[in-house]
């Protein structure tokens, strides 16, 4: 049963990443969020294949999985996420150079952090991951408040809960492993389910703020479609 739940949670994250990642690009021309969403989905796909093949930590797939994990935890679902969401909170539209630079930093971080692969807990990287997560959480609290102020209260609560769950997962990841969870199956069921839900909720929240900005004349209607579409 746990293995089935793990697969379903991973498939949910893969679907949310690819489906909403494409929508971020096609509907809003937001390449930061679109590409990051698809990177998370690619990471989930690699992780699923690695797990189905036995989960050998000496395999190349594990190296790829560790890289993607470091990529998103360090810069992807932190700096890149904030930069992308600022399109609807502050009308911030980074230049192509800034987009490329952000992903280059994420790649460099993923490569650099490879040296800590295989260690159960390395205080330096673990503390760094928590620090950037907390900073991102502060912005996401503001993001949820913006949703509340425009009347999207259900989404505001959903974004707040998804963010809180993501922070709890980040804390658990390195510092508070579950007892009697040798292969971390239970943890990954919760983590993958949470991450997939974050991708879904943040897209819907972005859409709500974008549509509000269009209605109020803050944002031009280009790249906007009906708010009733998925």
Task: Describe, in short, the structure shown.
Helix content is 77%, strand content 0%.
User: What is the number of beta strands?
Assistant: 0
Shape field = globular
The total number of structural domains is: 1
Sheet with most strands: none
Outline the structure in words.
With 230 residues, this protein is mainly alpha-helical. The chain has one domain (2-215): Rhopdopsin 7-helix transmembrane proteins (Up-down Bundle). The chain is 77% helix and 0% strand. It is built from seven helices and no strands. The chain has helices at 2-28, 31-52, 60-89, 96-112, 123-149, 153-175, 185-215. The longest helix has 31 residues, at 185-215. It is globular.
Q: Which characteristics define this entry?
A:
single chain, 230 residues, mainly alpha, Rhopdopsin 7-helix transmembrane proteins
Give the arrangement of secondary structure elements.
Blueprint: H1 2-28, H2 31-52, H3 60-89, H4 96-112, H5 123-149, H6 153-175, H7 185-215
């Amino acid at each position: 049963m746990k293995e089935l739940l793990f697969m379903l949670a991973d498939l949910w994250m893969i679907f949310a990443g690819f489906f909403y990642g494409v929508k971020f690009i096609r509907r809003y021309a937001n390449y930061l969020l679109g590409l990051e969403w698809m990177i998370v989905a690619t990471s989930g796909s690699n992780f699923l294949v690695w797990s189905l093949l036995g989960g050998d930590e000496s395999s190349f797939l594990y190296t790829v999985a560790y890289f993607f994990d470091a990529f998103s935890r360090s810069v992807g679902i932190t700096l890149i996420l904030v930069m992308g969401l600022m399109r609807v909170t502050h009308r911030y539209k980074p230049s192509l150079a800034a987009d490329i630079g952000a992903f280059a930093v994420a790649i460099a971080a993923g490569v650099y952090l490879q040296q800590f692969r295989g260690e159960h807990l390395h205080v330096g990287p673990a503390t760094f991951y928590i620090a950037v997560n907390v900073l991102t959480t502060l912005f996401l609290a503001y993001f949820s408040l913006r949703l509340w102020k425009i009347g999207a209260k259900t989404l505001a609560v959903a974004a707040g809960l998804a963010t809180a769950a993501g922070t709890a997962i980040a804390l658990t990841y390195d510092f508070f492993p579950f007892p009697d969870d040798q292969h971390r199956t239970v943890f990954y069921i919760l983590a993958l389910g949470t991450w997939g839900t974050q991708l879904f909720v943040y897209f819907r929240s972005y859409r709500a703020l974008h549509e509000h900005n269009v209605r109020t004349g803050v944002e031009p209607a280009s790249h906007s479609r009906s708010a009733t579409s998925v």
